[in-house]
TrEMBL record:
It comes from the Bacteria. Residues 31-193 form the Succinylglutamate desuccinylase/Aspartoacylase catalytic domain. It comes from Mesorhizobium hawassense. The keyword Transport does not apply. Pfam families: AstE_AspA_cat. Keywords: Hydrolase, Metal-binding, Zinc. This is Peptidase M14. Its cofactor is Zn(2+). InterPro entries: AstE_AspA_cat (IPR055438), N-alpha-Ac-DABA_deacetylase (IPR053138). One of its GO terms (molecular function) is metal ion binding. Coiled coil: none annotated.
């Protein structure tokens, strides 16, 4: 294993950001390559501890000569967000300097060619970081961006061009659901990793062997040793299944049995009033059209001081908010519906 330190100049003199990159060299030039990163939203830690649990497994495979393709690991992908605190509260989702989501505004290239990356010499530190992460990952066969939601099931975002080719990956990771998407106008890291292959020859795109996904490891508070070990086993199984690591003792799982939902079927359920949320449902719960999902207490103790929110269609609860205070118009939850949402959104579901 090789460890290097990436250094990024900050936006003021004397400010430098650093993050480590670990590389395992493969012994077979024809084997698939893999890139894994975690904590692009710097406060989302389930992927960080999953990588921590995965590293000894990779080191053992390396010592035994079982790593076939090169593996690049970035356990803390966002040193800028990691350092951001405001009045004691960590702020890892948005850049405080630009007010931009750290998982937006990545360069969407027309082809997988690093020469097409923008010149960020005069750009901000967050843009330099994003360009460097694309540079580190571009051309890799397997790209996994590890995130988590507020409270939720384990699920994957997968571009429609990679489904059902990636069904074996979803099964290997043991996730509960897959959300399929087709457009990216916001420049997510996942979009920057798959969009360059949409208009290139099939022998370059290689959708049959390509893996690109945003992994949502349940919720912000799901950070413990048992879950980390289980998630690491899923990552390791994926690498074995796709031929990056050789390990005949790891059994390939069968067909993915979880839910597969088009992004257009997700109802986000904006809150009609501001107040305190009383949820009637939790992630994984099935719901029918008309079921009460939550009650918002907007005027405590008063007649008509509560507003109920009902399911617009049947389906199941994918995620919900971890905080119980909400403003009018903010999203209460993700309902994975049986049909297209009346409020269908393309691209990203939320800011």
């Amino acid at each position: 294993m090789q460890k290097t330190i990436e250094r990024l100049a900050g936006d003021a003199e004397g400010t430098i950001y650093e993050f480590p990159v670990f590389r395992f060299q493969g012994k077979d030039k024809k084997a698939p390559s893999a890139y894994l990163q975690a904590a692009l939203h710097a406060g989302e830690l389930p992927g960080v501890v999953a990588i921590d649990a995965l590293m000894p497994m990779l080191s053992k495979a390396e010592a035994e000569g079982r790593i076939r393709g090169p593996i690049t690991i970035v356990p803390w992908a966002n040193p800028i967000g990691r350092a951001q605190y405001h009045f004691g509260e960590h702020q890892g989702r948005f850049s405080l300097g630009t007010r931009t989501n750290f998982n937006r505004s990545f360069p969407l290239l027309a082809a997988p060619d690093v020469r097409l990356l923008p010149d960020t010499t005069l750009g901000g530190a967050d843009q330099r970081l994003k360009t460097r992460l694309v540079q580190l990952s571009l051309g890799t066969d397997i790209v996994l961006d590890l995130h988590c939601d507020d409270e939720g099931l384990a699920y994957l975002y997968i571009h429609t061009s990679l489904w059902p080719h990636m069904a074996d990956c979803a099964a290997a990771m043991g996730v509960d659901a897959v959300v399929l998407w087709s457009e990216d106008a916001d420049g997510t890291f996942e979009g920057a990793s798959i969009m360059p292959y949409q208009n290139v020859p099939a022998n370059v795109a290689r959708f049959d062997r390509r893996v690109v996904t945003t992994v949502e490891y349940r919720g912000m508070l799901d950070v413990d040793a048992a879950l980390a070990a289980s998630d690491a086993e899923g990552l390791y199984r994926l690498l074995v299944t796709r031929g990056v690591i050789q390990n005949p003792s790891v059994a390939k799982l069968g067909t993915f049995a979880g839910a597969v939902v088009p992004l257009e079927n997700i109802d986000m359920m904006p809150a009609p009033r501001a107040g305190a949320i009383l949820y009637d449902v939790k992630p994984g719960d099935p719901v029918k059209k008309g079921d009460r999902l939550a009650t918002i207490v907007h005027a405590p103790g008063e007649i008509d001081g509560r507003t109920e929110v009902f399911a617009p269609q049947s389906g199941f609860i994918l995620t919900r908010r971890s905080r119980r205070i909400i403003r009018a118009g903010e999203d209460l939850l993700k309902l994975a519906g049986d049909k297209r949402s009346d409020d269908a959104r393309s691209g990203t579901l939320e800011d």
